[in-house]
């Protein structure tokens, strides 16, 4: 895990691990890291199925009622059809991680002011080396994939203009995502969240967190008509998800990390999380946007309760997800071009009836992401930490 302390400058993005500071914080971060790792794997395998496999409907028509290993495994992956739910999970976690220390300082000192220049500098140091390296890697992988005909339909423009649009986090507004790396659309939103974070803090300081959350919810609704209906992806359409995470940070700070004595009420929150998640899956049939809102609220209900009882998640499976959470930012940033190259190389981009090769694709992506994390992301984290020391 990172030894970078998480303070009001928000050293840890939604995809990356935050530091530990004491046993209670370590337990809570274990929950956060495990959910981050789970979300990264969910999104990555969701994309892997899209790149490599024919899809559930076509597979069902071809496989019929056979019960060989491939058929059984394929049907077991049905829930991954809603794997994009990992994105709103990232947004909620990001808001929580970025705002938590500021929430602590605001409770101790209501007049606390964020050093916005330092916050942005640290965010730049934390995000942009990874983003730049991911774009360069995408260029190299997609350039290679283009040599295998027919060209994979997921490879979009890899020219200099598209590169700059993505480098300046304008994809979704001024252009499309770079090459085959369609996952980068969410990273532009993260950068925009960071740019307006001082405004959110000012609203919270002036009116309180709940009124600020209500204002953001209103902005979210307006954004549906201003941006979403015109297929423009701007932070305002997903700001509510991110601010929900900030609200959870305030809840955690105000209850002092103690478990709620009313444990018998926890089933209400877990039940709400389950119902909202199911509703999100149903809404996904009509569009991604409403599903994202429901999934975000559902995950927020779950996270509020999970953070009350962090040790309940200290299982071998949770520790494994937590390890993936260490390099989830790297995995998220580079997995798609890897899948496209593997599909182009081995299958000439033809979708396969067998779902089993996808698991091999995932192993390759995880291995490359871990190396990318060690070579690129860790130095970026250290650079961000040094900026804090100078303040």
Short structural summary:
With 391 residues, the protein is an all-alpha fold. It has helices at 23-52, 56-63, 69-76, 86-108, 116-145, 160-167, 185-207, 209-226, 239-254, 266-283, 288-306, 316-326, 328-347, 357-389.
Question: Which helices and strands, and how do they pair?
Answer:
Layout: H1 23-52, H2 56-63, H3 69-76, H4 86-108, H5 116-145, H6 160-167, H7 185-207, H8 209-226, H9 239-254, H10 266-283, H11 288-306, H12 316-326, H13 328-347, H14 357-389
Helix pairs in contact: 1-4, 1-12, 1-13, 1-14, 4-9, 4-11, 5-7, 5-13, 5-14, 7-8, 8-9, 9-11, 10-11, 13-14
Salient structural properties:
globular; mainly alpha
Structural description of this entry:
- It is a single chain.
- The protein has one domain (23-264, 309-389).
- Helix 1 runs parallel beside helix 13.
- The protein has helices at residues 23-52, 56-63, 69-76, 86-108, 116-145, 160-167, 185-207, 209-226, 239-254, 266-283, 288-306, 316-326, 328-347, 357-389.
- It has 14 helices and no strands.
- The chain is mostly helical and 391 residues long.
